[in-house]
Model the fold of this input.
Amino acid sequence: MHDPLIPAARTLTPLREFITGFSALLDQQPDEARILAEGGALLATLVARDDWLPDAYAHPHPEYYQQMLLHCDSAERFSIVSFVWGPGQRTPIHDHTVWGLIGMLRGAEYAQPYALDAEGRPQPQGDATRLEAGHVEAVSPTVGDIHRVYNAYDDRVSISIHVYGANIGAVRRHVYAEAGERKPFISGYSNSTLPNPWDRSKDPVAP
Ligand code: FE2
Done:
């Protein structure tokens, strides 16, 4: 029987190429604007096709959205996460404290940006943006860091692939109540095993 945790290595080639490309970009020590522009282009390429995410990282939980780690850079310069939205699921209003890129893989989601007023209460900034499959968005303390994200659908799963400028599951950040209360928050991850894009036995590396 096929183990859903061990897909054909070839299936994960887009993820491996994304990891390698993003690492090479960060090796150049680019500023945030360049990371969001050039890294966003790499993420757009990754989410342009929806044939690589193993099923084990695409299953919704009946109650909670799932944050599944797909890869963490060994120096924790970046992490890659699949967000799996069950029908109607949403995040609280939250921040990130580091740059983030959001690429829509399957279905659609809404992102509603917020800014804090003088009393520290989150106020919506404009309309929610609807992300369709293939689209990429950015967040950061520079370009806008507080938002709420939710599945655009009440009757189907949506999945987005996120890249953050840290090991995001270990970052101290915040959730905000509508009344303005700010609570510390460390998200962790929903999974304890990772996909393996590094089995290149069918695509060997030259000696
Ligand atoms: Fe977010």
